[in-house]
Design goal:
mainly beta, Leucine-rich repeat, LRR (right-handed beta-alpha superhelix), 14 strands
């Protein structure tokens, strides 16, 4: 099944309801400029996704529980993006978390195949939740006390340390 979102459609959010078993690729590069929320979780979408062309108005993107794969560029997300959920897919490659939008407060990347050393030294100040669990990630990371328990790193080689 193919779902096509035309540019002339004016709406602020789009939800592809869960457990529809929708499949195929998910093209996000031509979404309406005014789209603020896009949800496509618990389906069977596959292939890579380009997050570098999301609408400037995008606040929330939920792509959890699919079969999406490939590397993910997180350094060119819209400045407005607050919530990004990519959990339970097959994404891989290194993660660059040094230039996330300053508005970001939830980032869930758990249960994928991301690998390499992570640097959490430049997380947005308002971040409230970050889950990196169940990936092939490593590194020693220093986390402020108020965020320490909100950073998930279970089943990784990440060593969490309290920032002094």
């Amino acid at each position: 099944m193919r779902i096509r979102v035309e540019r002339h459609v004016q709406f602020s959010n789009c939800a592809i309801k869960k457990k529809n078993d929708l499949s195929g690729s998910l093209k996000l590069d031509n979404l309406p400029d005014t789209l603020t929320e896009f949800t496509a979780h618990q389906n069977k979408f596959s292939g890579s996704v380009d997050l570098t062309q999301l609408p400037a108005a995008m606040l929330t993107l939920i792509l959890e529980h699919n079969r999406l794969s490939g590397s993910v560029v997180l350094t060119q997300l819209p400045d407005s993006l607050c919530k990004l959920y990519l959990s339970n897919n097959q994404f891989s490659g290194a993660l660059d978390l040094r230039r996330l939008p300053s508005s970001m407060f939830y980032l869930f990347l758990n249960n994928n195949s991301f690998s390499g050393t992570v640097d959490l030294s430049q997380l947005p100040q308002g971040i409230k939740g970050l889950d990196l669990s169940d990936n092939e990630l490593s590194g020693e990371v220093f986390i402020p006390d108020d965020l320490f328990d909100s950073v998930g790193a279970d089943n990784t080689k990440i060593i969490k340390r309290h920032m002094e």
